[in-house]
Amino acid sequence: MDKHKNMDRIFGVILLLLGLALCIGVKTVFHACGQTDKGKWMACHWAEQAEMALGVSIAVTALMRLIVRSGGKKQGLALALIPQGIAAALIPNTLIKLCMMENMRCHAVMKPASIVIAVLVAVVAAVTAFMGRDE
After folding, report:
1. What is the span of the domain harbouring residue 84?
2. Does 120 have pLDDT greater than 60?
3. φ and ψ at 92, to 5 degrees?
4. Residues 4-28: tens digit of each pLDDT
5. Whole-prediction pTM value?
6. CA distances (Å), origin 69, targets 13, 72, 127
7. Does residue 37 belong to any structural domain of this protein?
8. Which of 39, 51, 61, 122 lies 20 to 30 angstroms, CA to CA, from 21?
9. 94 lies in a domain?
10. Which sign does the torsion angle of CA 66, 69, 74, 76 carry?
């Protein structure tokens, strides 16, 4: 029982860190392209904004999952993280188009980093949800 509880906490912290990495990362480390010389935003800016919002949502859901004590509620919150992760993975260039040129920062840096983090969220959330099924 203690081993399961520790693993649950570890996965919860990992989910929280992944959510924070997504929302902070798209604004700092792997941000999209900046404004044009004319002051307009490129299309990828909106993908960055959506990724940041989903990152916040993932982080808040993961934090709630860490705080809640009920096994069923924890499992429900973990299940809620799966579609959030999938949606975050689909945003760059599927749901929101990125720049036209494949060598732009949004394609080369933001897209792969966002997809990797988002897929990790979905996978860790799925493992966590099905790990707690026996409770």
Report:
1. 42-135
2. yes
3. -70, 110
4. 788 888 999 999 999 999 999 999 9
5. 0.89
6. 15, 9, 18
7. no
8. 39
9. yes
10. negative
